[in-house]
Request: fold
Amino acid sequence: MLNRMGAALCLLSAACFGAMAIFGKLAYQAGVSPGTLLLVRFSLAAALLGMVLLVRHDLRREAPGPPGEPADRPAAARRRLLATAVGLGAVGYATQASLFFSALQLMDASLLSLILYTYPVLVTVAAVLLGRDRLTPGRGAALVAASCGTLLVLLGAGGVSFHPLGALLAFGAAITYTGYILVADTVVHRLPPVVLSALVMSGAAGTLGARALLTGGVDLDFRLPGWFWLACIAVVSTVLAMLTFFAGLKRTGPSTAAILSTFEPVVTTGLAALTLGESLSAVQLVGGVLVLSSVAVLQVRPARNQDRDATGPAAPVQLAGQPWRVRR
Reply:
């Protein structure tokens, strides 16, 4: 039986993540630059997650390692683990977010969301090529559907402001996020999820802060609405989105949480139409449905076993089923 509270939390998380592109567009309109947006987002999110960890000591409890790994890890191994977590943010997440918000300057939020959401399919392909997963007939059909859907999204760009460079940056963000997830799979089972999120945010903030120093700093001379939208991105689309996802995942299991997350680009598209006046053509809507359907199909097969096996927030990136549930 579906846990209603868990499902509601997963849908709330997807809605929070889906609103991020809209908040970004509105922040740009208020005079915020992409570099400032990224630095403030990750710095504020890292600070808020650090405060959560100070208040909730139970969230710092260390996750058990893979089978066969000693419970008490050597100091050197633990340092490598923490360094990898920080590096995920400093290299992977910072690059992915930079590409995403650069693309957002050039193209509509709805189209960007659909292009980015090809990453679950990319992760599945990469996992198969790396020998971490196997390609079943159902997954093969899902990959074909996703490829056709992506093609329709790009070819049907008559109704939105299509920009070739923007599309390239969006695909770059999806590819970068794929690599980030595959690397994160090596550490996500070993660190509590909120601790991992805080380390990733801190790493990303460090990289973006260093870049700001090398390029002459960031421009903070914008109006109050800009600060409001920045706060929305950090609080709503980062911290709240992550915490509600982990809470929902614990109640529903990874497969259900993964399927419910396909609500995310639907929210982006709907909000873009309501607040920004964006619209997708009929061909693009069909393509978007194919992409989202393929993501759901990729999750259906393992649902029976993994929902029973999931015991906590460490489950969402197991490459045997949902390798892509490391959140942005």
Q: What stands out?
A: Residues 7-60+72-317 form one domain.
